[in-house]
Amino acid sequence: MRGQMVINKQLYGMTVNQHDKMVTDSVWVVRLPALLPFFQITSRDQVYFDLDDSPHPATGDREFDKRHQLVDTDPAVAAQVLTPGVITTVREARLGTWTLLGDELVYAENCYLGGTGPNKVLETLGKLAMLVSQLPLHLGGGQPAPQAHSQPGYPQPHPSYPPQQPPAPYQPGYPTGYPPHPGHGYPAGPPPPR
Description:
With 194 residues, the protein is α+β, with helices and mostly antiparallel strands. 21% of the residues lie in helices and 26% in strands.
């Protein structure tokens, strides 16, 4: 979630401060089958960075190049990642800001009007699956992605769990141990007369 921005607006000859609403971002992380070089691109529809000095890609597709900018990305890597299939998928699926980070594809999207519902999550995952199918996975030197990620400070998953006991069958009536034994806050014997 990003905080508010103050926007100066001219209104009736005076400059007034108007507060923009909070913006919530949804982020998808998709594991890739191979390691890829770092690559990050953003479109002018979803700008997360101050991009004054960032270059535009040089794909030969003038409309795509004008709409997108590279963020801390080697232009030679961008030329290899942005194949015609990737460009077509990004354009048709309207994927704005995304990053290749090792063996992960990270995609961020602004969410307006209450966030991202289950249908939108599934729709976006479908679009990202199409993008993954078009990525040039050979760029990582043919290295497969590591199978398990070790993150410092987090417990590692156990290879197997001990077998669990099945729950006891339901017995109608009072639960076991009812009424409570004397000495558990109740006096022994029948209740006192009224």
